[in-house]
Task: structure prediction
Amino acid sequence: MGIHRRRDRGIILRPPLVRLFSDQEKVVLWDLRVDDVRMDHVDFSWADLRRSRFSGVSFCGCDFSHANLHEVSFIACDLRGANLVSARLEGASFAGSWLTLAEGLTPAQWRYVAQQGGLFL
Result:
C-alpha cells in the first residue's frame, strides 16, 4: 500500500494505482460510455476523457491529475478520494456523484462541481 500524507487528515493508506492504460492509450479515451463498473485506484493522469459518459461507476482513489474532463458526465459516480489536481473540468457534470476527500480542486472548482451536482459530505 502506498502512504500519502494529507495536511488535514494525517496519514492515509492507499493501494498503489492500477496502470490499466498505457500513455498512448490515455490520449484516445474520449467519448467513452461506461455504466455500473468499479474502476477504483486507476491511473487516469493526463488522460483525454472529453465527452465521455460514466453512470454508476466507482472511481474511488483514482488519479485524474492533468486529465481532460471537458464535457464529461459523471452520473451517480463515486469519486471519493480522487486526485483532480490540474484536471480540466469545463462543461463537466457531476449529478449525484460523491467527491468526499477528493484532492486538488481549487475553491472555484469546488463551487463549480457543487453547482454541477457533486456531493462532498
Q: What stands out?
A: The mean pLDDT is 91. The two ends are 25 Å apart (CA to CA). The domain at 1-104 is CATH 2.160.20.80 (Pectate Lyase C-like).
